[in-house]
Amino acid sequence: MSTRENITDILCIGCQKGSTSWLHSVINTHPATWAFPNSEPVTSTTKEAHFWDWNHQRGIDWYRQLMTPPDPALRTLDFTPEYAGLSDRDIAECKALNPTARVIYILRDPLARAVSGIRMQMLWHLGKDRTEPLHLDADFDRVARLAKLGLHGDYLRNVRAWRRHYPELILLNYEDFHTDRAGSVARIFSELGLDQAGLDEAGQERLQRLMRGRVWASEPFAMDRSVLMTLHGLTWRFRQEAEEQLGMRFAEGERLLKE
């Protein structure tokens, strides 16, 4: 019988294309955290358990077994961006299974996030590299549907849904990983109650490599101006709401529009 209070102690719900992989690696440098074993294709590497989208039919016992660490004191990680748009019923179940979990939500400029999400779907489903421009055509319609721009971009809806169950939801700005990396990492460790001074030597070395390295971002790719402006229109409401009601400030999309 498990004595752990939560199945998962630290959840990251996105956003998709918001450097969740980088942040997962950063947090997992701490010896008090634990990432489940690589179980692809059932899960996505050691990062995304996908319980509430791919694997819910496997049952709670499956999720508990996947997430059970070798030492019950370790804090487990599930960083699955698809969780951002969960229904109230699913979030309520998450709360029941993980009553004291800390939940992180990284917000990225909605236009830049959409562009990155579109490119990811192009590579996955159309096999197009960045040298081929994207036009307003059937290919765009297909990858736009696959990218689920509303689910991943409607930050205000997602924040409100999760805060109903987790009022202390931690919001991070993706751009801070570029402009104030050290400050952002110090803040998230503090928010999670993880003492950076508690990293062992191996963890310190891994963290320093991550801090010096490039925060992964999508490479630019060719698209018609009409595609960019269409995405700008589709994501405009998300940007306005995030700025006005969540206090976020974004610059990445403005740079895209000026290129």
Features:
259 residues, alpha/beta, Rossmann fold, five-stranded parallel beta sheet, 12 helices, 47% helix, 8% strand
The level 1 CATH classification is Alpha Beta
> What would you say the CATH architecture is?
3-Layer(aba) Sandwich
Q: Identify the overall geometry.
A: globular
For the biggest β-sheet, the strand order reads: 2-3-1-4-5
Q: Given the helix and strand composition, which structural class is it? A: alpha/beta
**Unreliable spans:** none
Could you give me the name of the CATH homologous superfamily?
Answer: P-loop containing nucleotide triphosphate hydrolases
What is the string of SSEs from the N terminus onward? EHEHEHEHHHHEHHHHH
Question: Largest sheet at a glance?
Answer: 5 strands, parallel
As for the CATH topology, it is: Rossmann fold
The level of helicity is 40-55%
Beta content: 5-15%
N- and C-termini, Cα separation = 58 Å
Could you characterize what this model shows?
The chain is α/β, with parallel strands linked by helices and 259 residues long. The protein has one domain: Rossmann fold (3-Layer(aba) Sandwich), CATH 3.40.50. Helices cover 47% and strands 8% of the residues. The protein is built from 12 helices and 5 strands. The chain has helices at residues 20-27, 60-67, 88-97, 110-126, 138-147, 149-153, 155-163, 176-179, 181-191, 201-212, 225-245, 252-258; strands at 10-12, 33-35, 75-79, 102-107, 170-173. It has a 5-stranded parallel beta sheet with strand order 2-3-1-4-5, with helices on one face. Helix 2 links the parallel strand 2 (33-35) and strand 3 (75-79). Helix 4 crosses helix 11. The longest helix has 21 residues, at 225-245. The radius of gyration is 19 Å and the shape is globular. It starts with 9 loop residues before the first strand and ends with a helix. The mean pLDDT is 93.
